[in-house]
Amino acid sequence: MTSxxxxxxxxxxxxxxxxxxxxxFAKAGRDVVCAAVSMLVINTINSLDExxxxxxxxxSDEVKGFIDCLLLESPGExxxxxxxxxxxxxxxxxxxxxxxYLKLKFEEV
Length: 109
Fold this sequence. Notes:
Strand order of the largest sheet: 3-4-2-1-5
Mean pLDDT: 96
Order of helices and strands: EEHEEHE
Structural class: alpha+beta
Oligomer: single chain
Radius of gyration: 13 Å
Helix content: 25-40%
Strand content: 25-35%
């Protein structure tokens, strides 16, 4: 199962996204759930950097299925919309495939 922690400040500003694990829906190379989750998360991170200009600190390990994206500054309106869109996509994956493969956890710091 993939677990994704979405961490926001008390005022609702995104601070960090931490993804761990592989979904286990199917064998590597055939796992459509893992591919969907990876595409949503990686595209959002790339878009935060390239389109919204948000400074990020990244740590990742493809083998372990680990991504830790720390936002070093406010994502602003553009970045917030990108992150909202990612969450919408991830929630749709959960609704279609179930919590057995993807767990979303929201935290406030």
